[in-house]
Design a protein that fits this description.
heterodimer, A: 309 residues, alpha/beta, TIM Barrel, two-stranded antiparallel sheet, 33% helix, 23% strand, globular, B: 786 residues, 6-stranded mixed β-sheet, 3-stranded parallel β-sheet
Chain lengths: 309, 786
């Protein structure tokens, strides 16, 4: 094993660290959200996770109009107008100086450069609760494999501390990355969005060939995998979609668990704060009966089907 | 399931309207009027004997456990010898919206013509206030501390297992032995001891008299009863009441009835804080339960019904009426009898038994605010026990609360108790640690820590009362560093701790001299052996507490001062103080900065948490170990009841952005809404306090119901509790309700009459809480799952 000291100063871009995370694996966990994702799923409920660069989330609803940000902005991107403060995103360099002076968190810089040792300090703060609950740390995103050296270093450090480790991945990375992290990962939460390759490209921007390939290879190795399937009405819940999924399941040998994650519109507000359009604004969450039908169907093909994380 | 009998008894108890009863006041006034020269213990015993002999006997339809303090359920005794209510008090009690007591014209007349004229200048309250120094009175009026003994007596204690092995006749024999041993030649205190012991003997005889009167009444009712089943029950009640408390109990039914007579005796003799409490009920009753179950003379269902009948009796006894500051610091009908389950046995083994589970079922089904209940959770207790308790907690009404048995034992050991005494101890009232059956652990008053910071920032001047209350601890504008501020803060704290202690030491002596409790003294070791009263140092252990309030508010305020003023120098001290003096008017931007940008306790942030520890150390070092008048010492604990609302109302704007007059943080919980990193971070912060050096801390957590769904939700909660206790936390309790429900209850009270929430160490009807307290509970951070 490489020396721990070599890892401690590796840095990565984090957009959130959430303690008492109870839906991303067993027990009480801390979830580290790594910024940047190769997919651009139309339904993404963490749109701030997609860009690999820091960016600004703005809220006009709680802004006090104090003007501190206008004075602080080094590039003059913020303007006081009759309609309220306007931020010219084309000028904004996401330096976050305005967030530092904002008294109410109406301006938040998403994306923070952190070293492995800094992240580990936050993870280890809740060690006593992992010990009690069989929990640990989950690396999510964004896409954690997007920063492979950082992820590898974090996993190495977490394992060094004896922690249960989960990687929540979209699966879109070179196989070499998975090969490297698999021995350090107690379980993968592996997202399957859509099985049909063309449809996948349309809704996420990339082909799923590499994703499915990585999945079958991890499965063949006997890695512990929980599949996670977001159910987006009208996108991936047709009988053909489910049929494709069943065929995929039949190709897997060791994977025994599938979670259905019903779409919810909870991320919409974040799009507004990022100044982006949310294309599924009108989409409604699937009804419970529909989810239950899909779950029943899938139970014939995999041991465990859960609804929710 | 609840039987029809229990359903009816419970319903009647819930519907009974609290009233004032003059029965006790009439007797006590008559005895004092006639008394002539009597030693204080004998006078008190005469009063007790007369009440036991004369009070109206009340047996309610269908009940299996009998005995009311007053003539009927919720007909509440008053204690004019402690605090004689004025006519104006009676008006307030009768008419106030929350925690009222109905007062009829006959009661008013008796007060006007008999009680008030006689007790004027004679009650403990007047004697106490007349004995206090001018600076004590000014500090009290300013809301720097409260005084527990101003309207109620010391109590704060709990019974151990002694009554299950001894009848009152056995105690009388012990008393006789001690009397015979007294050495009037060589022991200068022999006469005092003799008077105390004779008073105990009279009290022991009198409680037997009361029981016999209940037996007679039950027998008479049996005679005229038509229903054969009820007739048989009444006959059984008569037999039991002739047996206990005179002799030791043989059955579960006798054991419960015995305890209940004892309970009535204690809460009738004086008006003791926290009523009284059987303590480790599951362990005490288990031998009876097991034996009868084995013999086939009892079923689990019959035991459940008896326990439920027992539960109703507590709910029939509201805490006697409080007025003024005492009502503000403890505004509730709840009288804090707090039943313990689980924990450890004296030999250190797992104390959970089948009755522990049955009691949890009873708590769940009864859903009554009285008695309070808690589990003592040891690492040796099975998870099944914890999870069973949490399934009750999840229902959302705040019971049972959860204590760390290992920490409680460690606290008691640190105080010098034997390991057996410690393991038989537990917690009572809200969260107070005690050696059950052996300790007088008296709470003497709340201490407003944030107010002292306000005084510190004004060089000892109190802006609200316009008085220079404290010493001149220095002009804040001339402080060079944060350390200067802390030194001044310590100086203010030392000054007012000393004032409080001086007052306490007088009040303790007033109770020792004028208000002994010979009945309670029979029950607490080693009062008989020493021939000394509970209120005069007769107990094996004597501890006096001052309860710190507002640690979250003061920590966040110090953190803001340290960072904003001293480190970042965003404002000069003079400008900062102007901000506070103006209550942030027109300065919302600066206030929001203080609220959002400064370090806060409750986020596992060492910057803030170290300040919390520093305040704790100052408070601890000023109080802990100072001698009381009973051979024991003062210690601290950290709980508020409802005092954080009262203290908030007298405290100006604080540096953490809190506006003038709003509630302080409660217990050791973070400032409402200041904790933003989830429950594990709160627990980590709270555990940085050294709980072992307290006699109890109170931590409230609020969860949304959705977080605790399913077995997984119970698992998460259990892991949080076990984690916190691994870190040494003393106590945790939960509200499981969302803010929307509480707001709906404020808007539509008629739909939420039965909504019970956790307040601070006890549960209460949401609608019985003041609006300020309702708002405070709504503002507490709601933890959701991520």
């Amino acid at each position: 094993m490489e020396r721990m000291a070599d890892f401690q100063n590796i840095t990565g871009l984090i957009f959130n660290i959430m303690r008492f995370s109870v839906h991303d694996g067993p027990g009480i966990r801390t979830t580290v959200f790594v910024k940047g994702c190769p997919l651009q799923c139309a339904w993404c409920h963490n749109p701030e996770s997609i860009s690999p660069q820091p960016e600004m989330m703005l809220r006009t609803d709680i802004c006090l109009m104090c003007g501190a940000c206008i004075a602080a902005c080094p590039v003059g991107a913020i303007e006081n107008t009759a309609a309220g403060l306007v931020t010219h995103r084309e000028k904004c360099i996401a330096c976050g100086i305005c967030a530092q002076v904002c008294p109410v968190e109406a301006r938040v810089r998403v994306g923070r450069e952190m070293t492995v040792s800094e992240v580990m300090l936050e993870i280890l703060a809740d060690r006593v609760f992992y010990d009690q609950s069989g929990g640990g740390v989950t690396f999510s995103g964004g896409e954690p494999t997007r920063q492979p050296d950082f992820l590898h270093a974090l996993l190495t450090a977490a394992r060094h501390e004896g922690l249960h480790t989960i990687v929540d991945t979209c699966g879109y990375a070179p196989w070499s990355v998975f090969e490297r992290i698999a021995p350090l990962t107690s379980r993968f939460l592996f997202d399957i969005k859509i099985v049909d390759p063309e449809k996948h490209r349309r809704w996420t921007g990339v082909s799923n060939r590499r994703i499915l390939d990585n999945l079958t290879r991890l499965d063949a190795r006997g890695c512990a995998i929980s599949l996670r399937l977001p159910i987006i009405p009208g996108v991936n819940d047709s009988p053909e979609d489910i049929k494709g999924l069943v065929e995929l399941l039949q190709r897997l040998h060791h994977t025994k668990r599938l979670h259905l994650l019903p779409f919810h519109g909870g991320g919409a507000e974040k799009y507004h704060r990022l100044g982006r359009a949310f294309h599924l604004e009108q989409a409604v969450p699937p009804d419970h009966a529909a989810i239950e039908r899909i779950a029943q169907d899938l139970r014939n093909h995999i041991e465990e089907v859960h609804i929710g994380g | 399931m609840m039987t029809e009998r229990v359903r009816l008894l419970r319903e009647k108890s819930l519907q009974a309207v609290p009233t004032l009863s003059t029965e006790r006041a009439e007797i006590v006034t008559r005895i004092y009027r006639q008394a002539g020269l009597l030693s204080a213990p004998m006078l008190r015993a005469r009063v007790f004997a007369a009440i036991m002999q004369e009070k109206e006997i009340c047996i309610n339809d269908g009940e299996l456990i009998v005995g009311e303090r007053g003539p009927a359920p919720k007909a509440t005794s008053t204690f004019p010898e402690l605090c004689c209510h004025s006519l104006q008090d009676l008006e307030i009690l009768d008419s106030r919206e929350k925690v009222f007591f109905r007062v009829d014209e006959g009661t008013r007349r008796l007060y006007r013509e008999e009680f008030i004229p006689f007790w004027r200048g004679r009650s403990m309250r007047e004697m106490i206030l007349a004995s206090m120094s001018e600076e004590w009175k000014q500090a009290y009026e300013a809301g720097i501390f409260t005084e527990f003994m101003e309207q109620r007596g010391p109590g704060h204690t709990v019974l151990d297992d002694k009554i299950y092995n001894k009848g009152m006749n056995d105690f009388i024999a012990d008393i006789e032995t001690r009397l015979a041993e007294l050495d009037f030649v060589n022991d200068a205190t022999a006469y005092d001891r003799a008077e105390e012991l004779k008073a105990m003997r009279l009290c022991a005889q009198s409680i037997i008299v009361l029981a016999r009167r209940y037996a007679d009444k039950a027998a008479a009712l049996a005679k005229s009863e038509k229903n054969p089943a009820r007739k048989a029950e009444l006959k059984t009640i008569a037999v039991i009441c002739r047996r206990v408390p005179a002799e030791k109990p043989r059955t579960l039914h006798e054991a419960l009835q015995y305890y209940w007579f004892i309970h009535l005796g204690v809460i009738t003799e004086i008006n003791p804080w926290d009523a009284f409490n059987p303590g480790r009920l599951d362990q005490h009753l288990y031998p009876f339960y097991k034996k009868e179950l084995d013999e086939g003379s009892l079923t689990r269902e019959a035991a459940r019904e008896l326990l439920q009948c027992f539960w109703v009796k507590f709910n029939n006894q509201p805490a006697p009426p409080k007025v003024g500051v005492t009502a503000a610091e403890s505004s509730t009908y709840t009288d804090f009898a707090n039943i313990n389950s689980g924990g450890l046995k004296p030999d250190g083994s797992d104390g959970v038994n089948e009755l522990s589970y049955l009691i949890l079922e009873v708590i769940d089904e009864m859903r009554l605010v009285q008695p309070s209940s808690n589990i003592q959770l040891s690492r040796k207790n099975p998870d099944a026990f914890l999870k069973h308790a949490l399934r009750v907690v999840r229902k959302g009404w705040g019971q049972p609360s959860i204590f760390n048995a290992e920490t409680v034992v460690e606290e008691l050991l640190r105080q010098g108790k034997s390991v057996e005494d410690a393991r038989q101890g537990g917690t009572s009232g809200c969260v107070e640690t005690g050696a059950f059956g052996k300790e007088a652990y008296i709470l003497t008053g709340y201490f407003n820590i944030p107010k002292l910071l306000e005084l510190t920032l004004h060089d000892g001047f109190d802006p609200r009362t316009g008085r220079q209350l404290g010493p001149h601890s220095g002009d804040p504008a001339k402080w060079h560093s944060f350390a200067d501020l802390m030194a001044a803060f310590r100086q203010q704290m030392a000054h007012f701790v000393a004032i409080k202690l001086a007052g306490n030491n007088i009040i303790e002596r007033l109770y020792a001299l004028h208000m002994p409790v010979p009945f309670l003294s029979i029950l607490i070791d080693d009062c008989i052996a020493r021939g000394m009263d509970y209120n005069a140092g007769g107990a094996r252990y004597n501890t006096s507490y001052i309860q710190g309030v507002g640690i979250g508010t003061v920590t966040d305020s110090l953190a803001a001062l340290k960072q904003y003023v001293f480190e970042q120098k965003r404002l000069g001290m003079a400008e900062f103080l102007a901000l506070l003096q103006g209550d942030f008017a027109g300065e919302e931007v600066k206030r929001m900065w203080l609220v959002n940008k400064c370090p806060k306790y409750g986020n596992d942030d060492d910057f803030a948490d170290e300040l919390m520890s520093e305040v704790f150390e100052i408070y601890y070092s000023l109080v802990n170990g100072r001698p009381n008048t009973k051979g024991g010492v003062y210690r601290i604990n950290m709980l508020p009841t409802t005092c954080h609302v009262y203290f908030g109302s007298v405290t100006g704007a604080m540096p953490d952005g809190r506006k003038s007059g709003t509630p302080l943080s409660e217990g050791i919980s973070p400032v409402q809404g200041a904790d933003r990193k989830g429950p594990t971070a709160v627990l980590k912060s709270a555990a940085k306090m050294d709980h072992v050096r307290t006699g109890g801390t109170l931590l409230n957590q609020k969860f949304t119901p959705s977080l605790l769904k399913g077995e997984e939700g119970i698992d998460h909660l259990s892991h949080l509790v076990r984690g916190y206790f691994t870190l040494g936390g003393h106590h945790i309790q939960f509200n499981v309700v969302d803010a929307a429900t509480l707001r709906h209850a404020q808007a539509h009270p008629e739909e939420h009459r039965d909504l019970i929430v956790r307040v601070a160490g006890y549960s209460d009807y949401f609608l019985d809480l003041s609006k300020a307290l309702q708002d405070e509970i709504i503002a507490r951070t709601e933890h959701q799952g991520f």
